Amino acid sequence: MTTTVEARTAAIEAARQAAIASGSARQELITYKGKDVLLPVVSIPLELTLYSPTSHRIRAQILSAPEETQKLFQKEPWGERAQAFLEEQLRATEGYTRIKGALEADGQRYPGVVSHTGILVNANTRAAALRELGKQYIDVVVLPTDAMDKEFRAIEASLQMEEDVKQGYSNVNTLLFVRDLLQDYSKEEIGLLTWRELRAKGDRGRKEAATRVDQELSILQIIESVRARSNPPIPWTFFEGMRQSLLEIAGGYQKTAKTNAVKAARIRDARIVGMLAGLGYSKLREVDETLVASYLGDAFAESPVVGVVASRESSPDLTEPDGLDLFDDSEHVEQAASDRSTSVPFEELVTLLATTVDAPTVEISSVDGTTQTINRQQLLGGIATAYATAIETKSLDDAQGDEILAPTKLLKEATKRIDAARSSYDNVRNRQDFDTEAWKQAYEALDRAIQDLNDVFPFTGSA
Predict the structure, then answer these.
(1) How large is the average pLDDT for residues 198-224?
(2) Among 94, 93, 86, 95, which Cα is nearest to 120's?
(3) Residue 176 and residue 216: Cα distance in Å, rounded?
(4) pLDDT given for residue 40 in this prediction
(5) Rounded Cα–Cα distance for residues 13 and 7 (Å)
(6) Residue 264 in contact with residue 326, Cβ under 8 Å?
(7) Strands 137-142 and 112-114
(8) Which of 243, 292, 305, 453 is 20 to 30 A from 207 in CA distance terms?
(9) Omega before 232 within 30 of 0, i.e. cis
(10) How many domains does the chain have?
(11) Residue 157 is part of which domain span?
């Protein structure tokens, strides 16, 4: 990897010319500048190739690297240290082992794509695998000398799903790729480049392509909003595996914001808090205006872990980073005054959780201005429990709509919760930090409720 640009370029061109002169070189069809062209497949030494620091296979990993590594890429992206980092990240991708196994068993079936200077536009992962397998050469097609970043991005997009063994880009890397393609292409063009199956659908496919890109951008805006509230910013890789939850948040915001942006912002932040606390996407669907306004505040207040959070007044955060249309609530500032929340400060919780993703403990401010330190995992558990309690309570209230079934259903649910409380009490009763007095008060309240129930339906051991 220490070969000069001039020497590398000359060696690649010599190999290309030799392949053409031999008359036996196979050709590969690629789309270049909007046209299908046949280019010869050339076998070149792996040592002449360079991993691309802009590869969207590992874009999120690169952007999430430590600051020192980021500076390294700005200064010496083709140096040995930067290239070694890229190789390490490529070998850590989910599909790397399968691709390496396929190359070992069957050889390289499809050529990669390189610039005339040896930058791998496509097949970065295959090059890493071939090196680990001890191979000396890689089959590639060499792009014309006028190929620039725009062409590199277009080719990468059109070939990203055509690996030896299919290895689609991760969710976050796809989002970042779509964002970068906006520099050169329309939404419709990006959609058709990225999802090739849409090309055969004509006008319907072009419309669907633009819609898909809009959806990806709405998810990206949620991530960018959360990252903008964290310091240091949450790594992009943190959001891998959260696609469905992000879809729920983005889709819900867009739908509600059409009629009430302040309400939409409050629900959005409540769902983000739930996502950061580990709630699955199916639970996030339950987080609506009713749950936020009438249930979550009480659920937080009842929790010994997050109760202090619910005692503070807050209003929806109406300030978002420039350019994020999905979060543009500025024209609804007047409405915020009359729609102020006095339950849970979700926007503050988003910032707290986003800023402390790697911290073992967090500090929570109390209503009197003092702070308390709490284990972060305990905080997440308390938040998740509060959400689950609020969702369950709302479900029980909804069930009361059926007057005939409601009494029995509610009593059964109460029995389950009492059994759970007893089991939980057995686990912590001897701990010094257990609040025995709070337990006694809760038990007395339960006893009064049972006595009241006995007045209506005296228990005699049989109905």
Answers:
(1) 93
(2) 86
(3) 9
(4) 93
(5) 10
(6) no
(7) parallel
(8) 243
(9) yes
(10) 2
(11) 5-169
CA 18 to chain CA centroid, nearest Å: 47
- Cα 453 off chain centre by: 48
Tell me if 154 is assigned to some domain.
yes
Q: What is the DSSP string of 287-325?
A: --HHHHHHTHHHHHHH-TTTGGGGGS-B-------TT-G
CA distance 327 to 308: 28
Task: Out of 66-75, 305-314, 436-445, give the one with best mean pLDDT.
Answer: 66-75
Q: Are 103 and 12 in contact (CB under 8 A)?
A: no
Pair 57, 173: CB distance under 8 Å: yes
CB 241 within 8 A of CB 255: no
Predicted pLDDT at 341: 42
Q: What is the pLDDT of residues 66-83, one digit of tens each?
A: 989 999 999 999 999 999
The 10 Å Cβ neighbour count of residue 436 is 9
Largest CA distance in the chain: 101
Question: Nearest 5°: CA angle at 146, between 141 and 152?
Answer: 60
Which two structure tokens, joined as six digits, stand for 457? 């339906």
Of 146, 169, 192, which residue is a domain's last?
169
DSSP 50: B
240: in domain = no
The pLDDT of 6-22, averaged and rounded, is 93
Q: What is the DSSP string of 81-139?
A: HHHHHHHHHHHTSTTHHHHHHHHHHH---S-EEE-TT-BEEE-HHHHHHHHHTT--EEE
Task: Assess if residue 356 is contained within a domain.
Answer: no
If you average pLDDT over residues 162-179, what whole number do you get? 76
Task: Work out the mean pLDDT of the chain and round it to a whole number.
Answer: 85
Structure tokens at 280: 């699955």
Q: Which residues pair with 164 in a beta bridge?
A: none
**What is the model's pLDDT at position 42?**
95
- Whether residue 460 is predicted with pLDDT greater than 90 in this model: the reply is no
In angstroms, the CA 269 to CA 390 distance is 16
412/295 Cα distance (integer angstroms): 21
Cα Rg of the chain, angstroms:
29
- Whether residue 32 is predicted with pLDDT greater than 80 in this model: the reply is yes
